[in-house]
Amino acid sequence: MRITASGQTDVGRQRDHNEDACLIDPDLGLYIVCDGMGGHAAGEIASQETVRFVQASIRRQRAILGDYINSPTFEQRTQVLRLVEGAVQEACAHVYAMGQSNPLQKGMGTTIVMLLTLGEAAVIAHAGDSRVYLIRDHQAHQLTEDHSLVWHMLKTGRLTKEEAAYSPYANVITRSVGTKPTVRAETLFVECMAYARFLLFSDGFVNYLKCA
Length: 212
What we know:
Blueprint: E1 20-25, E2 30-37, H1 42-60, H2 63-70, H3 74-101, E3 109-118, E4 121-127, E5 131-136, E6 139-142, H4 149-155, H5 161-165, E7 186-191, E8 197-201
Antiparallel strand pairs: 1-2, 2-3, 3-4, 4-7, 5-6, 5-8
Helix pairs in contact: 1-3, 2-3
């Protein structure tokens, strides 16, 4: 299966620096978007370090990916999921330690959403409110659920979609990389069907996308 990928990031109109980071690594089949948060340049550091650590961790153990592609058993799939979850945990511990050692970076963190392709399958992992969508047959299907206060209130019926659009808690996320020593990344296995497109983006893009 042939895969093509591209990425773009923009500082926008409200900030004077860009805290997003993205990765396109066709060799590993790894694609990441991180949206940093924190004072000064701390958010930018958190997102860049997370991308770097996740990529390095998966590259170190890439033999596990080959084992799954050659023999896609349940046991091998479990090993891939552990690899992905461990890579995010490594990045989280690293970013948290950086924040603890530097007062200017204390409390910094980042969301993460990633896609790791494995032949005709892929693993999605995320923490925070950055998302993955599947674009197929001219329709966009959301594959991830935000780790945010507003999303939780929507799921529990405490907010309507209309109320959520104007909630003062729109920026409150419940999971992130680096703000605490550990984080639980949510993972999902999906099929890579022909002509399917996956869209990874940070929260600022969501209002421009109409879903199926």
